[in-house]
Amino acid sequence: MADMPVWAAPEITGWRRLPAHAVPRGGITLDGRWRFQLLPSPDASLSDRWAQIDVPGCWTMQDFEDVHGVRDLPQYLNFDMPWPDLPPHPPAVNPTGVYEREVDVPAEWAGRRVVLHVGAAESVVLARVNGIDVGMGKDSHLAGEFDVTHAVRPGEPNTIGLTVVKWSDATFVEDQDQWWHGGVTRPVRIYSTDPLYLDDVHISSGLADGGAGDLTVEVRVRSAGGLLPEGWRVSAWLDGPEPEVELPVDEEFAALAAEREQVSGWLGRVRLRATVPAVRPWSAETPELYGLTVRVFRPDGTVADESRHRVGFRTVEIVGRDLLVNGVRVYIRGVNRHDFHPRTGRVVSAEDMRADLVTMKQFGFNAVRTSHYPNDPALLDLADELGLYVVDEANVESHAYATELADDPAYLPAFLDRVSRMVRRDKNHPSVVIWSLGNESDYGVNHDAAAGWLRGYDPTRPLQYEGAIRYDYESGRAASDIACPMYASIDDIVGYARSGRQTRPLILCEYSHAMGNSNGSLSDYWAAIESTPGLQGGFIWEFWDHGLMQRVTDGRPAPDGGYAAGVAEPGYRWAYGGDFGDDPNDGNFCIDGVVFPDRTPKPVMYEHRELAGPVRIEPDGSSRVLVHNRQHFKDLSWLAAEWELSASGDAVAGRTAADRLRTVPAELPPIPPGGSATVDVPPELLAAPAGPGEVWLTLRVTTRDDLPWAPAGTTMCLPQIKVRDEDRDLITRAGEQIAGAGVGSWPVEVDGEGLLVHPLLASPPTLSLWRAPTDNDRIGGHAARWEELGLHALTREPLDVVRHGERVVVRARYTAAGGVSIAHEQVLTPTVGGVLIEETAVLPDALADVPRIGSVWETAAGFDAFEWFGQGPWETYPDRCAGGPVGAYRADVDRLFTPHARPQESGGRHAVRRFALTGGAARLAVHLDEPRQVSVTRHRDADLAAALHHDELVPLTRCVVHVDAAHRGLGTASCGPDTLAPYLVGPGTYTWSWVLSFT
Ligand code: IPT
């Protein structure tokens, strides 16, 4: 092969590789330990020494004896190629894995056709059996199958050899934004069939009139002997709706065989068709599947080959600018998912895939885009079974040479091969509702060629390709049936939908970039989508934080109490670009998921769950609530619910959690999909709240029974309405409440600088204008601007400290390191049990657009619990707070902070009206004049900003408390629109007041 390097020949996509098909096959697994050598290049010679390695497994993620001294670790890059050579040339240094193992091929396989199946290998695999070359294949995310009948020796041990070349011409069309690895990444097996075998089964299962299913099964039959034997026959039948009531193969199903047409003696093609009465349609909400068995019989009537399939009856079509599933315009609440695991890199087990999809379902996602390549077929089986719409994407991304390769005839076979092989493999999955030609490869005739093939082969599904519509949503019709932009702003998509020009559905293929503390305005996107005809949803970027588990070798102690959900275990960290010495790299741009690398949901997941919730409520008069069923296909009978009442008065009255939680079972009326009904609020709830303050009513909606993706009692959403407003000035009342609790008065004490002094305050309240930059702040350019202004380094100069009796007025000037000054005034008035702090600050025009304005202070050590009345219980920010119901919550201070792999501002709680910090006998309480952004963490902003990894943080024993008059929203500027105007902190005068009390 060295004389004819197939790894530098884009026109050769495979050699003796079998066509992709949709016949599920078992066989003998070859997973496990293999002999292994990692060579520096495909031309290098083998040694006599072999290491051992796991298959499937990335060699970049495994320890093995490195006989040839080839160190090949993961490298993270967005779209730059990892080496400078131009297409189609791989670099001279080209790690190449040589794998070998034995397998006992059963004696009974003699006379049968034998196939070697390599689930996936990056990026070229060359296969051998007993030293005989059996084939070669490219495409790192589809199986290569090779007919090895001629090479195997049944009844004996056989040696299977795989050579995996890491870099190739194919790498230029696999330039996705992710870690580069190498190795065999999906299961390997060997199977046999009768010489008369099912070559492919193509199922189309739509819906006919009157609730019937329209089933067509096209079967291709071949004979390894060449010509088919005279008298072969095919049958297919569908299981009954319940396993025990198997549908008889009656006359109607006999009609399945009626349209039989044998094309020639060389290829058998049979089309079977039936109308199946009264089917239960498949949808993401109702993933109803029917078993189908297909058999081919020998002329003597015995079964030669058989396959089992699962059929979901559903339609998908585009009508005007709507994508319809079963005739209904469904919202696409999607997320992009890469194959990822923190320990194995790109190798994911069926259990891992299930856990991914279960997490998606539990948090309201109904769709997944297999960004940016076909996934293991097991994932599609799970999507069929659990109910998720799939955009199945071909493994084509020529990002670094996008324009060039999209039109390059040398790469035409690769485009066609990758798209067609995916479609041939995945066509029978009801979950696949849209095909995608790939990602970020500009747009060229190679796409049109692939689209042309696809439309001919599968006219039942739409296809999409973002590159085709990038510069004009109305262009690229040949290659995209959907306007599927990435990171478009709300104004942009609404403008298009209202322009009168829109002729296709708009579904964002990527939006709301989840890097770090992000996903600002997700609720604004959904408000726009739900109110604008033509907009149908999108796919959040992305599911995973791609942090690889890496041992920290510098002897750093494990962070105190730091091993929590979302954090790598002690002694490890989540590694990102550069952490393996990988150069060049794109840093932490791969840490951009809605779940941490251990699949712990980030706060945005709760936001999403609420936005996607099956139930919404709104007030309807004083004692009634309008309940909406937000689903497309189901009623509410699968849900249970209870009413929960939270009253702000409770928080100050010091009631225990048990007293506070007033819950009453709620009856969910039978509301059809899309419908609404009015329900009465139980009178005992409305009568309940004692004392002053606001009252909120939450409907906790849970699963009633165990489901395949959620145990009974799993929360689906927490819609909420306010049933009583604040009736009196909160600050006044706070004072009264404290008085009511019998606390003595507390004289205000200030030092010579006018700073508040108290033994429980380690650091007095001062002005804060800065936050530890989020990834959005940093990449969006704000962090640099703020640093230039010097917002992180304010110096305070007291101007005057004046006592008016008990009251102290402190005027100060804060000057940012960049030179701009801010006038600030604190009026400190003793109240019963504490001090009322009234603050005013004037932000000059020179400080337009700052991250926050408010007070920062630190407690003495010893406070470890945080109780608050406000949004929660999870983290919320001004533009990401639709999923945090208002209530009275309690949490450990150590658990408030969100442990992003790269530290940044986090842990905030939005619209907090009051809070308390407790520890031992001490209690420190704060009552705010109005709902405000508050955070309590163990970290100072400067420490967060300086750290590059979570494990570098050393938690303080004190609490760092921020009480903000205003806090800039999060936005998504790391990739996409910045924080929207209503969530910015602009110039002007800010006033905020709070009562600080100690007991
Ligand atoms: C877009 C890519 O499709 C995706 O793979 C990922 O890189 C994402 O951005 C950012 O995390 S491409 C970008 C140039 C808009």
Structure characterization notes:
The protein is mainly beta and about 1000 residues long. The protein has 6 domains: about 5-195, Galactose-binding domain-like (Jelly Rolls, Sandwich), CATH 2.60.120.260; about 195-310, Immunoglobulins (Immunoglobulin-like, Sandwich); about 350-385 and about 395-545 and about 600-610, Glycosidases (TIM Barrel, Alpha-Beta Barrel); about 545-590, no CATH class; about 615-725, Sandwich (Immunoglobulin-like), CATH 2.60.40.10; about 760-790 and about 840-999, Beta-galactosidase, Chain A, domain 5 (Distorted Sandwich). It contains 17 helices and 52 strands. Strands 41, 42, 43, 44, 45, 46, 47, 48, 49, 50, 51 and 52 form a 12-stranded antiparallel beta sheet that branches. The longest helix is centred in the middle third of the chain and has 15 residues, at about 410-425. The relative contact order is 0.08. 1-methylethyl 1-thio-beta-D-galactopyranoside binds next to loops. Its EC number is 3.2.1.23. InterPro entries: B-gal_small/dom_5 (IPR004199), Bact_Beta-galactosidase (IPR050347), Beta-gal/glucu_dom_sf (IPR036156), Gal_mutarotase_sf_dom (IPR011013), Galactose-bd-like_sf (IPR008979), GH (IPR017853), GH-type_carb-bd (IPR014718), Glyco_hydro_2 (IPR006101). One of its GO terms (biological process) is lactose catabolic process. This is Beta-galactosidase. Belongs to the glycosyl hydrolase 2 family.
